[in-house]
Amino acid sequence: MSLILFNKPFQVLCQFSAQDGKATLADHLAMPNIYPAGRLDYDSEGLMLLTDDGKLQHAIAHPDHKEAKVYLVQVEGVADAAALDKLRAPLNLGDFVTQPCQAVRIAEPEWLWPRNPPIRQRADQPTSWLAITLQEGKNRQVRRMTAAVGLPTLRLIRTAIGGISLATHPLMPGEWMAVSPQHLTP
């Protein structure tokens, strides 16, 4: 049984099959019979888990298992206490209400790699960084949450799933490594 950690680069599809000339996992991982355990949007970066074990894939990806996921988010604007309180509380996004989560303002991580292409810079618009930890993970949830509190997401990087983190398993975008599935539990 294999568990692969992969640092998904910006603008890579979370699938192996080609689509519309966009980069896919196949451009970075040449391993047969492994499958993503969960997804990241095309325009998001960071930690993905892949496995050749169907039960493990289900255990990681299924919403009932609620592995904590940590995201670093660069937003347009300054995240004040009121915005952070709104992010932490259940937030009505129209089609669902989020679960309570952790959200804190952080300094830009020194270890973070530059994005290619870089995000747009606007001299008259400050940005800030947040660390958001979710127990759920609905489609484009973090982006929708920050937009709902007036802080559009500029950059989104998943850094941890359960007990597996890019802090303890440093990988640059496009790099991968195999680990034991026991690392999932903190």
Automatic annotation (TrEMBL):
Xref: Pfam families: PseudoU_synth_2
Record-listed E.C. numbers: 5.4.99.-
GO biological process: pseudouridine synthesis; rRNA processing
Occurrences of domain Pseudouridine synthase RsuA/RluA-like (ranges): 3-148
InterPro entries associated with the record: PsdUridine_s_RsuA/RluB/E/F_cat (IPR042092), PsdUridine_synth_cat_dom_sf (IPR020103), PsdUridine_synth_RsuA/RluA (IPR006145), PsdUridine_synth_RsuA/RluB/E/F (IPR000748), PsdUridine_synth_RsuA/RluB_CS (IPR018496), RsuA_PseudoU_synthase (IPR050343), TruA/RsuA/RluB/E/F_N (IPR020094)
A GO MF term: catalytic activity, acting on RNA
UniProtKB keywords: Isomerase
Gene3D superfamilies: Alpha-L RNA-binding motif (3.30.70.1560), Pseudouridine synthase I, catalytic domain, N-terminal subdomain (3.30.70.580)
Keyword Amino-acid biosynthesis: no
PANTHER family: PSEUDOURIDINE SYNTHASE FAMILY PROTEIN-RELATED, RNA-BINDING S4 DOMAIN-CONTAINING PROTEIN
Family: Belongs to the pseudouridine synthase RsuA family.
NCBIfam families: pseudouridine synthase
Protein name: Pseudouridine synthase
